[in-house]
Amino acid sequence: MHSQSSKSVRYKVIKRKIKYARLEIKNNLIYIILPEHLKMDHKKLLEKYKKWIDKKLKILNEIKDISKDLKLFNHN
């Protein structure tokens, strides 16, 4: 596992026994999950999907801000 921060985008690189690379976003952290058997440059993947990542992070942060003002009720 490999962890870094790039221009305010925090990410972790994880190698697994999978067929295809994928990106996951959890708690403002990008998980770059790569196949073990492939030599793939994670920085190129980050650059290729930069717009998508920025858009998703923006949406998630907006949802987080909205949720701060929500009140939850117990309907037992």
TrEMBL record:
It comes from the Bacteria. This is DUF45 domain-containing protein. It comes from Kryptobacter tengchongensis.
